[in-house]
Predict the structure of Phosphoserine aminotransferase.
Amino acid sequence: MQPHVSRVWNFSAGPAALPQAVLERAQRDMLDWNGSGASVMEQSHRGKRFIAMAAQAEADLRELMQVPADYAVLFLQGGATQHFAQIPMNLAGEGDSADYIVSGHWSAKAASEAKPYVRVNVAASGEADDYLKLPPRDSWQLDPNAAYVHYTPNETIHGVEFHGVPEVGAAPLVADMSSNILSEPLDVGRFGLIYAGAQKNIGPSGLVLMIIRRDLLQRAGRPMARIFRYAEHAAADSMLNTPNTWGWYVAGLTFEWLKAQGGLGAMAERNRAKAELLYRAIDGSGGYYRNPIELSARSRMNVRFTLHDAALDAAFLQESEAAGLLALKGHKALGGMRASLYNAVPPEAVEALVAFMRDFAQRHG
Amino acid sequence: MQPHVSRVWNFSAGPAALPQAVLERAQRDMLDWNGSGASVMEQSHRGKRFIAMAAQAEADLRELMQVPADYAVLFLQGGATQHFAQIPMNLAGEGDSADYIVSGHWSAKAASEAKPYVRVNVAASGEADDYLKLPPRDSWQLDPNAAYVHYTPNETIHGVEFHGVPEVGAAPLVADMSSNILSEPLDVGRFGLIYAGAQKNIGPSGLVLMIIRRDLLQRAGRPMARIFRYAEHAAADSMLNTPNTWGWYVAGLTFEWLKAQGGLGAMAERNRAKAELLYRAIDGSGGYYRNPIELSARSRMNVRFTLHDAALDAAFLQESEAAGLLALKGHKALGGMRASLYNAVPPEAVEALVAFMRDFAQRHG
């Protein structure tokens, strides 16, 4: 342990903050994990110790999210972006079409990357509204024959979030939950497939968590190498080839930590309070700060805001970093600021941010 | 730092031993990396600090392997197995064929996983010899029109290794170096593409290192999502999407460590001495231990051996583990024992193993 570790409040959109307790545990066990005399990174994924840890991580995740038994849980690689392609490869046959709800940068990208593998029907889009609001459910042009319906419950860059799961009929609902998974309780049974890059609410990058209804594993998809087939990964307990063992381990530590925090109900309460605190500070700043998103679509995870004068942006970023508030710069496509408030960002971080914002506004009038 | 860390000698085939100095550095910096006040896992891959680290890792690798300027270095995901498929997707057009040299489990798998994407010509195979020797170069039936020639310089499971790079004419030579990369100096210019899963000689699993001649990036391949195209990854400096940031970081620490050890020339000498010590102990055991591989094909990295009586295997494994010698069990397909002697396994580990083997033979007569 370092004698003088000085930690900052980290608002990074991803790779993002991890719980300090998780980092301390990983640090402590780095050279000698689980009595093995070696790091967890140095263990065979086929060894007893690693398999027991991996199974415990899956069991904890199933308990946290109350995953029904007819769903497989997979620990994969490639980032959500690879699965933008792999999902249609697995779920759609030749000539099939799929519905995509486009509500921001990431769902637009999911639709675009799917095109080599499925006829993409953009059933609804918020583009004409600059993604400042969500396309209302009654405007969606769903195809009753779609192989699946894909949407992105929370848009990391645009800062919009669906509150509640949309009803889409018989087609399996596929959700990229990279930036809001584990942030609140969820009725997994409403979904056909949930997937998430780990680097926001789960663990380090390079790991993708997938929850897939087992009947979907029977879909033939198209001719492809085994390594791309979800059914093969499920049959091999995600050890079809060597998985990202470190990522799986840190994810497991995070699941353990979430359970100790009181589970997803407690996290939902904490996350709602954090977001409310920040939005109130923005809305109550008399126009000094501004969030452009329609109230009902505001994200609890990624809070965009602009300063009343963009000429102050550089000073805001410099002074906030000096005050120990990391990574507040907005995505380059949109400018302004963004504070990401994932599970591992404690309420104290948001309090510090809000205090800084008030102070900054006073000093820079 | 833990007060009572007890480390074992780790002969795991992969994920495998890492240099202790690398683990200690990762441990020290876990909560506060590079003065950032956050873990390296909590940094945006687009941030200045991470980009500088990533570039330094690439520069160190280029220096260690003397990678010519007309080669791109990529940090990818998916394991070597995914690239068994992705290589033909990128390098072969519709109707193309490729030559595969099959010298053991992994090259056979590479050939098999390529089949959905290219006509596979098995130009040579050691299968009839149970992979105990390598198919001699003058027996290879190479196709002058092959899109590329694929081989596996070292077979992790079968314990055979090509010593020297084969001449294959004009077709680009593609090599899966997962288990021998960085173990000795290499003339990269002889290859079209080199790839390696990181979990043996580089770092943690979930990272793939690729070195690809830039002209090969121009090959059209076939219609596919951008995420599968090596050219897109190269154009984005391996940040087309979020890379495995922890893996990249640990790989960088390993490259730094290799430079401090004196580079690949020094590692080659050390690796040769380690392998010789173990093979001498096996060959000099009067048949108590036995390695079945043809002398000229013996691997420096993965040393297979059997006991003269398989009924002693269980005792050997139990007593060796009690003596702090980890993961000596051979692959389940072959039985017996296997000691993997990658860069991070120090000479002292092999000395301890050899001493144990002598002692075991005396005690169990």
Residues 263-283 of chain A form the longest helix (21 residues). The radius of gyration of chain A is 21 Å. Chain A has two domains: 27-260, 263-364.
